[in-house]
Every structure is written in structure tokens, then in C-alpha cells.
Amino acid sequence: MQLGLNIGYWSRQQDLVDVLALTREAEQLGFAVCWVAEAYGSDAATTLAWLASQTSRIGLGSGVFQIPARSPAMTAMTAASLDALSGGRFRLGLRVSGPQVSEGWHGVRFAKPLARTREYVGVVRTALAGKPVTASGEHYPLPLPGGAGKALRLAFHPVRTQVPIYLAAIGPANLRLTGEIADGWLAIFFSPDHAAGWLAEIAGGQASSPSRQPPTSQPPTPAESSERDSAPDQPAGFDVNASVPLVVGDDLDACADPVRHYFALYIGGMGSRDQNFYNQLARRMGFDQAADEIQARYLEKEHRKAAAAVPPDLIDQTSLLGTTDRIADRLRAFAEAGVTTLSVTPFAGALDDRVAALRTVCDALDRAGVGD
Predict the structure, then answer these.
(1) Are strands 320-322 and 239-248 parallel, antiparallel or unpaired?
(2) How far apart, in whole angstroms, are the C-alpha atoms of residue 35 and residue 6?
(3) Does residue 44 register a pLDDT over 70?
(4) What is the pLDDT averaged over residues 102-120?
(5) With 70 as the cut, is the pLDDT of residue 86 above it?
(6) Which of 85, 130, 213, 240 has the fewest CB atoms within 10 Å, i.e. the most exposed one?
(7) What is the distance of C-alpha 260 from the center of its chain?
(8) Contact between residue 1 and residue 340 where contact means Cβ atoms under 8 Å apart
(9) pLDDT digit string, tens, across residues 183-205
(10) How does strand 165-168 pair with strand 90-95?
(11) Diameter of the chain by CA atoms?
């Protein structure tokens, strides 16, 4: 199992100083990848281009580009450009987003997200391969029928014609699609206790598309390496990237406190009362009553009460909390569950504390004996 860094979004100038310091530290420590997010604030592509100029070895990934924010051809152009700027280090993470952001921010209807994702990835792959882009789907017909458009191809030679594509997926149908058309899964709220069912869905998607192979030009991930035995039921040739909060300390309850608001935001506020995919995920994991309370409190703007309602067990299952030895135990559990890249988000306050947390998780990985 490799380590990754998830730096999320940024909103202040000071955040950029911290982002660069954490990314450089992760590179020095041998982390495999740094993921950058976007929602409706800082965009991921600009930050990734900046980080590409400030680093030399660490992989750089969009975690994620929002599908409604860009045409698939624009995403292919951006992916090829970032891959060139980084010397072949880019990983393309995609997500269809949710109805509130898609329709409220980008003005794109959220209907038929699975079909749109399938068509989108198909266009991106065609463009990156340097082929004339034609598509006959419902959502992205190219060239537009009845118009003056012509089938164009990417107008420069990319570093790689097969940039690895990851999908951020939550529900069973999305997981099957991820296994069928993607090279990796960006998982949130990943719990080793529930991993078998999720990975079985991905494997089912792979079985429906046996001819599609992972990109051979990408430096091998642990799942692709012939020197590593796959975990039981782990999809072959596939990077399972789980993002987890990281807090180091002796008091487990105190470690959980900084991440409570993160869980409350996603379970309570990332979506409407009727359509919140993170809330639905918490329910499928057995936290129905808590999911109800968190959402009710959050939508009533009682954010502290929503955070207080997050079950400690949910936080612990899906995070790295505690001492170095305890984190080592959790790393073993994630590796045994099939995770091939564990991307951490340090939640400690000051930059020095977050840098120290990255060093601690490296020490814990050595103790766990599951690193590559």
C-alpha cells in the first residue's frame, strides 16, 4: 500500500503556503500522489499546474474535476496539458458532482449521471489517444448533428496517450461503472468493515468489460505491480485510493473532535434533504438514526449539534486516529481490505503539526509492514 496526500480545497492566501509545504513534505517522504479538489471555490486545474512547477516526483491528481464544469474535450485538453507540465505525473479524477452544484453553480441538469459519466469518459479517452473525436451518445454527440462541426483531434502530442482515470463513486451502480470504465476508485468514508461489498461491485463492473486494460504508460501502482500479491477479492490492475482524515494523539476522543465538522458537512449539508449521497452512504453503513439527526441539525443550521451527533464509530472506521502504533494497526486493516493507495488529510491545526502528522503516518506504515 502506498501513501497519498489529499489537500482538498483552499480559500485563503495562507492556505497556499500550507498546501505547497505539505506537498513538498509528502514528496520528500515518498508519498505516491497529491490530490487537489474543487467544488465552487478554488479550481483544481490551476492549483495542480502550480504544484507541478514546484515538485518533481510526486504524482498529481484531480480529486476531482467536476464533470458538469467542463466539456469532455476540455477535460482531455487540461489532462494532457497537466500531464505534460508535470512530466507524466498526472492522474485524472472525475465526479459527476451533485444536483445542487451541477444545477445551481454550473447550470447543467443532473439527470442520468451514470450515462453522462460513461459518455464523458469515452470522449476523454478518445481525445487523449490522439484519435478524431466522434461520439453518438445522448449527452455528448460530437460533432454536433446537423451543424458545421468536424471531427477534430488533439493538436499536440501528449506525454501519455492513456492518462489514468479515476472515478469518485459511492453507490453500487456507480461502483460497477467505475470498475468497468476507470483505472482507479477515489473512495470517501472508506471502512475496512464494509470494503468487501464495495470491491465486489467494482469487480463486477470489471467482469463486464474484460478487454479494457489499465494504462501501461503509467508508473505501476501497487495493484499493477507484479511483485505484489492482490488482496482477496481486490480488483486486479486497479488502484483503490481511499481518502481518510488523519489526527495523531494520545486521546482518541480528542483526535476525533477536529474531524466531526467534516463528517457533519458531508452527511448533513452536501446535498438536499432528499438527495445527499453521503447521507445515503452512512445509512448503508448502518448509521441510519445518526444520519437522520446529523442532516436535520445541519439543515437547521445547528452545525455544532450536527457535529456532536456524528457517531465515534463512524469516524474511527473511516479515519486514522491516535498514536503511531494505533495508526499502524489501522493501516494494516486498510491494506488487508484492499486499499492500494491511502491518501491522508491531516486535520491537526498548525502547519507544523500537519507536517509532523505526515511523518508519523510514514513511521506507522513502516511499523505496519504493508508499505511498498
Answers:
(1) parallel
(2) 5
(3) yes
(4) 94
(5) yes
(6) 213
(7) 20
(8) yes
(9) 999 999 999 999 999 999 999 99
(10) parallel
(11) 66
User: How far apart are the C-alpha atoms of 183 and 170, rounded to whole Å?
Assistant: 16
Nine-digit cell at 60? Answer: 498529481
The residue type at 111: A
Please identify which residue in the block is written with the cell numbers 465486489.
Answer: 200
pLDDT tens digits, 347-369: 978 999 999 999 999 999 999 99
Kindly list the distances between the CA atom of residue 211 and the CA atoms of 12, 175, 186, 200, 206, in Å, as whole numbers in the listed order: 46, 18, 22, 19, 9
Q: What residue has cell string 468489460? A: 209
Q: How far apart are CA 245 and CA 338, in angstroms?
A: 18
